[in-house]
Amino acid sequence: MIIEARDQQSAYGRKVISDHLSAAMAKREANAAIYVSKTRAGLAKEIGEWAEGNAGAGRWVACTHEHLRTAVRFLLMLEQLQRLRGTAREVDGASIESQIQRIRTSLGKIKNIKTKATSIRDGANDIEGEADALRSDINDALSELEMALKVAGKRAEMP
Predict the structure, then answer these.
(1) How far is 141 from 122, CA to CA, in rounded Å?
(2) pLDDT for 100-109, tens place per residue?
(3) Strands across the sheet with 32-37, in order?
(4) Which listed residue, of 67, 83, 115, 145, carries a Cα 20 to 30 Å from 49's Cα?
(5) Residue 61 in 3-state DSSP?
(6) Which DSSP string corresponds to 82-145?
(7) Global pTM?
(8) What is the H or E stretch that residue 80 is in?
């Protein structure tokens, strides 16, 4: 397994990540890879905080650094499952698939929650920006009003 860690500000999508990890796995003779981004900004919207895929050499996961430990455990578990299925050992496939789906469903829910939280934060930042602009507009209007009243007061004092 290889881990490629990046601190990108441009968002990479599924194709770019898959191509990159495919080349890295081939070079290092690995059969699994993780592309970990320091922030959400380094991953395209289609990736979110977690995405899975297959490259020529094997499975990959792209995620943010918060999910790195989960990605390592997940890929190791999938590899172990594949080995068990390759032997004559009996494997409770339904139970295992159920747990894998549970993990994927939970990761999808996390992705949705984080997306909504980001949207809320962006909305709150927009509202705060509007309030700051209005406050500035009010201060400018008060300054102009004060200046106009000073000029009017001086004219009234003149004989």
Answers:
(1) 29
(2) 999 999 998 9
(3) 2-6, 32-37, 58-64, 50-55
(4) 83
(5) strand
(6) HHHHHSS----HHHHHHHHHHHHHHHHHHHHHHHHHHHHHHHHHHHHHHHHHHHHHHHHHHHHH
(7) 0.72
(8) helix 68-86
